Amino acid sequence: MLETLPVVHSHPDPRHKPAIAQKHELRFWLNGKPVVEKNPDPNESLIHFVRRKGYTGTKLGCSEGCGCGSCTVVVESFDYATQKVVTNSVNSCLAPACSVDGKHVITIEGLGNAKKPHIVQTVIADAHGSQCGFCTPGIAMSLYAAMKKNPHADEHAIEDAFDGGI
Ligand code: FES
User: ∠ at Cα 164 (160, 165), nearest 5°?
Assistant: First the structure.
């Protein structure tokens, strides 16, 4: 069922920033929309940034990047060596917001919602894969990244993708 993983949406080409970056500006794509932040705080973490922008589906749990995975988002970037888009799951509690300059960040809101869930959300719900629900957005993002990397990932590979989660 996951072999035909749909693209979240027609995400922008990560080779192109929303516009020519100016000094002291952070520019990236967030759920397919351009974001421009003037004078970004170099100490602000990505989770605080996305939550401040209203994407509160990404949760802050342990805040240590090594325990709960509830803060997981997906970051897409362009690998010039292979000329391909690279998809990674990232613990947004550890990543500085400035580290995603020129990249595409996908949060759980960009994946899908109750009315129009992404297939990975449907699979998690159908398999009763949620516990209290707090970390479920992170689980969904980890699964999405794993399946984007390898649409034919076996059970073991998917389990590995959940290593950073509770
Ligand atoms: S909040 Fe727990 S890993 Fe980031």
Answer: 100
The pick from 93, 134, 136, 141 for probing ligand 1's pocket by mutation, whose C-beta has the most ligand atoms within 8 angstroms, reads: 93
Does 3.10.20.30 match the CATH number of domain 8-161? Answer: yes
**Ligand 1 nearest atom to the CA of residue 94, by list position:** 4
- 142 alpha carbon – ligand 1 mean position (Å): 13
For residues 133-162, average pLDDT: 92
Task: Give the atom of ligand 1 at the shortest distance from the alpha carbon of 62.
Answer: 2
| Side chain identity at residue 161, one-letter code | A
Domain regions of the chain by residue span? 8-161
DSSP 10: -
Those residues whose C-beta lies under 8 Å from the C-beta of residue 23, and which sit 6 or more positions away, are: none
pLDDT, tens only, 6-24? 556 555 665 565 555 556 8
The pLDDT assigned to 66 comes to: 76
Closest ligand 1 atom, residue 91 Cα: 4
